[in-house]
# Entry
Amino acid sequence: MRSATSYFNATLYRKTLARFWPLWAGYGVIWAFLMPLNLLNQYLNVIVGDYRAAIDTRLDAALQFPSYVVPGMYLAAFFAVLCAMAVFGYLYSSRSSCWFHALPMRREALFTTQYLAGLSFLLLPQLATAVLAAMVEVAFLPMDFWGQALGALLAWLLAISGICLFFFSFAAFCAMFTGHILALPAFYGILNILAAVIYELVDSVMHEFFFGYTGSSAAYQIVEYLTPAYALREAAYWQGSSNIPRFESSATLAVYAGVGVVLAFASLYVYRRRHAETAGDVVAIPLVRPLFKYGVSFCAGLCFGMFTAAFFGWNSVTALTPWVLVWSVIGYFVAEMLLTKSFRVLKAWRGAVIMPAVLLVLCLALQWDLFGVETRVPQLDQVAALEVSMDMGAPIDGGEYLDITLQDPETIQKFIALHQAIVDDRERLDYSNSGQFLAGESYVRLQLHYSLKSGGSLDRSYSSIPVHQNELEVQGSVTNLIGQLYQDRALVAQAYDFEGFLKNRRLTGAWLDRVWEDKGDGSRELTYGVYVNFCAQELWDAVQQDFAEGSIGVRYLFDEDADRQNNTYMTDLVFSSETLLVRNEDGTFRPTYNSDLTITLTPHARHTLAVLEGSGIWEKGYSLASRSAVSESGGWEPDTSVG
# Structure
């Protein structure tokens, strides 16, 4: 009896392969024909005249073979569900399902036969590809390089086989939960990206409710691992140019292959308890039906609720909440229609109340911030480091933006105080709060990334903080605290980054941007780019002196402020530098890169102005453009005190 069953299993396996030969043949042609042919083409196209160069080129082509794992992953993900639809297609018709399950075979044997047949569609072409590629490499490479080339080929075979194992097992797992053949690719595609979709939905809702919220980096990392296409793509990146060629994360590839084995056994477990009469049902497992209904209701409520609110331009969470509830009800009834295969689903209204009630409680909890997300500000003793990105107001030059990492407790405390002030005054600062939002005379962008001593992190981003001139002297106000940061010369110096500008670089030149040029006929013209390269180093040293004295690099919170207009020129001094030449091991030089640093001149920068006056450019008819006076024609007047 056992030998007869084994014979029947083998016969069923062969017939399954023969029946669906176009499927595995089409997949096999992509690999077993195109990949070795591509490798052979690379070998034949090398320069034959230089034998050593030809060998190196061929070896490099062989070592880069595992880089095809990433495109192969997408092929495997696509063909895996087609193979599952082919071998498990008998489950989706009452006649074929009853016929197969009436055979004198245990379900374990029937599942194993179909599973191995489907997996063979993917693995056999990979094996044929590896054999053909090995034949090409052995034929065109010296014996000394066979080990390296065949090792890379083996790495490709193991990686792509593990990926095929995972995706087919996942498709087989999805196949066990549905009785409709069109539902299988839908479930397979949705479940592959479900973690990322739910994260984006919840993250988008929290962005709507919480001022400054930027998401959770820890949760995002978990979502990445739960999204197979993303995790495998990152893990399968082949570092063939390194000293030890390897995948970015072989451990991740091995873990997903192990998950594929677990999913295969889980599929068998579900298959043994699946009823043959469920053929034609969208969800074949009764235990999963409530999960399907409420899952569709939850996702429909968040997704279409936010889409509707965005479509009509409703930025208020008060307008968002009702639409989330409405679409969750619609999603529930749609799921009920799919399960019952009927439009008469209104009698299930009691179940339709549950998810809207849950979402209503969730929305109210978020709106009232019961979890303390919006108001969370870490204490100084909890912070190990703080990354800050912040606008630095006017003038618009090299110091207009601050991007630093802080570990000094005193400076960190200043930003914590600013963060707390923003949280306390969020009703007026949040643009989406149309009822209490107060527009400012200027706006500041601030991003904070706290690295906590506990090992966690906290991110907050405030893209447009309104500041008010009448609050500049109000102690503890947001405007006042930002103004104090602008007066911190250490922070301003880091914004200009004078040290970094010339680190491993050399000064190559300097020029004045936007100066008046006397045309000789009584008229003046605004000129861009008057070069003073001959005194670039003297100007650089003078700027450092003026900055140390506080007469240059002063930041202003309001661009139209009278002090800003009276104490800065329209003219900028621009320095250029380039990276130093670095010789590579092969004797060549690395390419150089240019960089510019712009400094807005001021009437009080006596050292810089003295160097400019000594350069003789004023005698050539040039003069600085002042912001304090405007001509009748609307142009900037030349400054009469210089040149």
Notes: The longest strand covers residues 505-518. The longest helix spans residues 107-140. The radius of gyration is 34 Å.
